[in-house]
Specification:
The protein is of the alpha/beta class. 45% of the residues lie in helices and 10% in strands. Helix 2 packs across helix 10 and helix 5 runs parallel beside helix 7.
């Protein structure tokens, strides 16, 4: 399929993978860019930055010309899993996490993707994580495999990285905790997002685009093809479309 629209690529873990589900945050973004941008989901459930780093050359190989105008990088929820608890295989030390995130950003920039938004991991509701494991696996945990404090350290690292490399950051760890009863309102299992949480993420991403990449605001991008009324006003609408497409090549 020929790419006649610009593309936004969402790169991340399960919170990105699920973002095109009903009420998902990618849907919020895609809805704002109807007929203007193709929003592409490259989310990989359970992945940390160590496992994601080898994917970037696969997703954006050097020999492929793309029309990617913006990318989001949204990892950390799995990296921040504690090293001495049940999700230890997903844990990535904070120093390595920062290095991996820098490498992902550098790769995107090497592919001429300059408009990048970093997204921090959300906060963790520890009681909800324990309840989720009990309900799902019938296992009672003495302590959750993730903590809000650990997630906060990784979120702060993303904020610092954004300042270092000159990129905007959507700080979910901070923004979520401004909402009363955020653990129940925004998270469905202490980690993943409810519809309300998804709506908030989508809204924050759109706000970041408006603030930091004004040329990519929805109303500043043209539709990929003319309005139907333009076709109806010509003597040969089909030929008008063909002519338009020839000019786009």
């Amino acid at each position: 399929m020929a790419a006649i629209r610009p593309q936004f690529v969402l790169f991340g873990d399960s919170i990105t993978q699920k973002s095109f589900g009903p009420g998902g945050w990618a849907g919020v973004v895609a809805d704002a860019y109807q007929r203007r941008v193709d929003v592409i989901n490259r989310g990989y459930s359970g992945y940390n930055t160590r496992w994601a780093l080898p994917l970037v050359d696969h997703i954006f190989p050097a020999n492929v010309t793309s029309k990617v105008e913006l990318a989001t990088v949204f990892f950390g929820a799995n990296d921040a899993a504690l090293a001495d608890r049940t999700s230890s295989t997903q844990h990535v030390p904070l120093s390595e996490y920062i290095t991996n995130m820098k490498s992902i950003v550098a790769h995107f920039r090497s592919r001429n993707i300059s408009s990048i938004i970093l997204i921090t991991p959300p906060p963790v509701s520890e009681p909800a994580r324990i309840a989720h494991v009990l309900a799902t696996y019938n296992v009672t945990l003495d302590a959750p495999e993730r903590t809000n404090d650990a997630a906060g350290h990784y979120a702060n690292a993303v904020v610092a990285l954004g300042a270092e490399v000159g990129l905007p950051v959507v700080n979910l760890w901070q923004e979520f905790q401004k909402i009363e009863n955020w653990g129940e309102e925004l998270l469905n299992d202490g980690l993943h997002l409810t519809p309300k949480g998804n709506t908030l993420v989508g809204t924050l991403v759109l706000e970041s685009i408006r603030k930091n990449y004004s040329a990519l605001q929805p109303e500043k991008l043209k539709f990929d093809l003319p309005e139907w009324s333009e076709m109806a006003s010509t003597t040969d609408g089909a030929e008008a479309i063909k002519s338009y497409l020839r000019e786009k090549k």
